[in-house]
Amino acid sequence: MAVPGARARGWAAAARAAQRRRREERTGGPARPEPASRRAALYVHWPYCEKRCSYCNFNKYIPRGVEEAAMRKCLVTEAQTLLRLSGVRRVESVFFGGGTPSLASPHTVAAVLEAVAQATYLPADSEVTLEANPTSAPGSRLAAFGAAGVNRLSIGLQSLDDAELRLLGRTHSAGDALRTLAAARRLFPGRVSVDLMLGLPAQHVGPWLGQLQELLRRCDDHVSLYQLSLERGTALFAQVQQGALPAPDPELAAEMYQAGREALREAGFRQYEVSNFARNGALSTHNWTYWQCGQYLGVGPGAHGRFVPQGAGSNTREARIQTLEPDNWMKEVMLFGHGTRKRTPMGRLEMLEEVLAMGLRTDVGITHQHWQRFGPQLTLWDVFGTSKEVKELLERGLLLLDHRGLRCSWEGLPVLDSLLLTLLPQLQEAWQQRTPSLVPGG
């Protein structure tokens, strides 16, 4: 495929970076294990979309024109700055999200990956994911992203019903989605994820389950099921408020979710997280970092991050949010090297609350060893082992607390939010008392 010179140079740079990483690994270069404090995932936010979907309240913008060269330069600069501030030596995954990052040029993706590879160690087999919308990602463009260094795609399919897609304000049809999915599977076999929404106004279990079954005949090894959330300020919220559309039925949505997870289990998928299902080991390693409360750097307008700025001499983990509006963000990056708008130090209790809420989203839950990394003063037995409320959840079969750790059962995972209403206050109370037992198991 013939490509413009600038893009070709970008892809060539990415290819050289990948070759260098492979060569270092073969020769025993910087592939030595790094402690968790020196490892991180990297999230890159592309803030632009062709149009705003009716349900979306994410940080995204519909531009009249994008100065991509300026945006690319700022993404590279901020990635370099945050890697230096964090002291991270190894980036284990990169995720290009948005917005619609498949609207960016492959040259921009290649430039960011090259900057990361120059600033730190990026293994040749690191997961590099790109979110793609069907209308902005024909096969030739997907191939170009693959040449730039992307090795995994997440396709915002959302529905296989054209009427539902119009309701959601999507720019693609069901036919577009299936053609893009087929092209993606040819180019990235075993590394294509698709999103399917449930709980839409006037949606019913049978037809929706039919969509899922159709998708299972065509999909790869990763599926995400997301329930519609009506967000204030969106067009869909206004339509429901005005009575133009019926409000989504939460009981029907719960029934869809349960039917969906059972259908996926029958098809050989493991529900490894509340909304995410994989077979053949195709878990998202990038998202796993979030659920395990690993470090991640957020680059781009409105991106979020969690890391210890060791390069700046700190040993306290911070929650960071970058400036939302793209033009203001770019001005700050050009002035200061990054556009961090808010930095919030995270206390030890706050960290444990996050470990609890995020870890229980997964089928593994929270192992004793993992918990001790963040809360050595208190064991899981100390916090939950003597609670009458937790004991009731255990007896009802919604939770499991044993030699492996704390986790939700199959029946408990769908009602995690209600379980946390019991577990989080229990953690807060135990933290206030902080009288750890000397013997594991209480």
TrEMBL record:
Q: Which NCBIfam families does this chain map to?
A: hemN_rel (TIGR00539)
Please state the gene responsible for encoding this protein. Answer: RSAD1
Q: Which organism is it from?
A: Microcebus murinus
Q: What Gene Ontology biological process does one annotation of this record name?
A: porphyrin-containing compound biosynthetic process
Q: What's the family?
A: Belongs to the anaerobic coproporphyrinogen-III oxidase family. HemW subfamily.
Q: Where is this region: Disordered?
A: 1-36
- Give a GO molecular function annotation for the protein: metal ion binding
Keyword annotations of the record: 4Fe-4S, Chaperone, Heme, Iron, Iron-sulfur, Metal-binding, Mitochondrion, S-adenosyl-L-methionine, Transit peptide
Q: Which domain of life is it from?
A: Eukaryota
Compartmental location: Mitochondrion
| PROSITE patterns documented for this protein | RADICAL_SAM
A single Gene Ontology CC annotation of this entry is: mitochondrion
Provide the Radical SAM core domain boundaries: 34-270
Q: What protein name does the entry list? A: Radical S-adenosyl methionine domain-containing protein
Function description: May be a heme chaperone, appears to bind heme. Homologous bacterial proteins do not have oxygen-independent coproporphyrinogen-III oxidase activity. Binds 1 [4Fe-4S] cluster. The cluster is coordinated with 3 cysteines and an exchangeable S-adenosyl-L-methionine.
Its main localization is mitochondrion
Q: InterPro entries, alphabetically?
A: Aldolase_TIM, Coproporphyrinogen-III_oxidase, Elp3/MiaA/NifB-like_rSAM, HemN_C, HemW-like, rSAM, rSAM_sf
Which stretches are tagged as biased composition: Low complexity? 1-17
